[in-house]
Amino acid sequence: MSSYDVDLFVIGAGSGGVRAGRIAATHGASVMVAEEFRIGGTCVIRGCVPKKLYAYASRFADEFEDAAGFGWTLPQKPSFDWSFLVAAKEKEITRLSGLYRANLDRNGVKMVDARATVLDPHRVKLSDGREISAKYILVATGATPAMEPAIPGIELAVTSNEVFDLPALPKRLFVIGGGYIAVEFASVFARLGTKVHQAMRADNVLRGFDGDMRNGVRDALSHAGVQFHFGTLPTKIEKSGDTLRVTLSSGETLDFDQVLVATGRIPHTRGLGLEAAGVELDQQGAVKVDAYSRTNVPSIYAVGDVTNRVNLTPVAIREGHAFADTVFGGKDITVSHEHIATAVFTTPEIGTVGLSEEDARAAYDVVDIYATSFRPMKATLSGRAEKTIMKIVVDGKTDRVLGVHVLGHDAGEMAQLLGIAVKMGATKADFDATMAVHPTAAEELVTLRSRTARYERGA
Predict the structure, then answer these.
(1) Residue 279 placed within a domain
(2) Annotated catalytic, 438?
(3) Residue 406 structural domain
């Protein structure tokens, strides 16, 4: 018999922790999972799922306008009910959270609704006072919004944790940050009718993404009414009645109903007791792990955003599964963090996989670019001024596709399938040999024959 209460204790019931616990249980391990908030983690409760539901909601404004170009006449001007959307979102995430709990129960995992902290390499303490011993401890606590910049009044702002449940749709919203969370919310609220201003330190949105995608999103947001303040940050936020007055580093002052801080996320390790247990953290507070998600303490592992490797839900799930298969299933599995497809759910959205043009040019001697920009078929009748942008980045020496980037309707759906091709090492010739599906936007990806640019290092 084991000398421990359980074989595995998981701290955090997000996507990575739930998957790890469930798979470990199928391998015969006794598992306990602790969660201090709600089962489902950031993605289900206050991240990707509600975010995409809100993105869908925001797009109906365009759909109502576009319908006229196809012969539809609406009997009256559409109206939007923010409180209805919030309630509908809450119902759906409650359903999903229940499914997570049911899956754990079905596999014999013991779920504990409590905060857990690490006491030593084999013991945790629950907020109800109990101490549990475990052969292995898995940290899967994710990340939390960073309240930056550290300026007077920053505590008056909301983060992505609270923005889904605002008591009313703000008429004026100030967004701090230029990353994917910031642009997604700017896009949503602008399309719901909010007057949005967005400020960031950089001179463009979405640092790290392909340049043409960044410019495309910036232009689409501007067209939707977002007013940008590039190279600018707030210096203080003051409250007067129901108004928040924001002073910018440019000296300008602006009034808003809400301020949203979206300047990034930090690993959620504070107060977990990891340092006392000897677990090494990096300067950002992320848990340092090896290829098997193992920390420097042999009995303690970590997966997902808390490790700050690639902060995406599917990555956390894959890491959690690989951990359970390796430690409890007798397998030897590591997770590759290359060629991960992802999406940014602005309107239009970005779907991307592989290297950007800029990163490819820095890493390869010869880079070929195949790019196109066109008006999507739907816009020909709706009259909407929009462009779909596509780019294929190719190794000019081997013809291997290094990256594919799409800005347009359902770009995220395209990216999932493009991820397979890029992961398998497809060449541009493989793309060219693939028959097109007509009429679709995606067919452009296999009919791009003319190279638009070639870059040779040192030339």
Answers:
(1) yes
(2) yes
(3) 342-453
Q: Which of 280, 296, 328 is the last residue of a domain?
A: 328
pLDDT at 1 over 60: no
Residue 138 token pair: 């898995």
Secondary structure of residue 126 in the 3-state scheme: strand
Q: Are residues 30 and 130 in the same domain?
A: yes
Claim to verify: residue 30 and residue 116 sit in the same structural domain: yes
- CATH code at 277? 3.50.50.60
82: pLDDT confidence band, cut at 50, 70 and 90? very high
Same-domain status, 212 and 303: no
Beta bridge partners of 343: 351
Give the CA distances from residue 63 to residues 55, 67, 136, 229, 382, in Å, rounded to whole numbers and listed in that order. Answer: 13, 6, 51, 29, 9
Domain end (from 236, 263, 290): 263
Phi and psi of 138, rounded to 5°?
Answer: -115, 125
Pair 163, 95 in one domain: no
Q: Catalytic one among 321, 339, 409, 438?
A: 438
CA–CA separation, 418 and 81 (whole Å) = 37
Question: In sequence order, what E strands does 375-421 have?
Answer: 388-395, 401-408
Q: Which residues contact 376 (CB under 8 A, 6 or more apart)?
A: 386, 387, 388, 408, 409, 441
Average pLDDT over residues 443-447: 97
Residues in the chain: 459
Instruction: Compute the Cα dihedral for 299, 38, 335, 360 and give only its sign.
Output: negative
pLDDT in tens, 273-302: 999 999 999 999 999 999 999 999 999 999
For the question of whether the overall pTM of this predicted structure is more than 0.85, the answer is yes
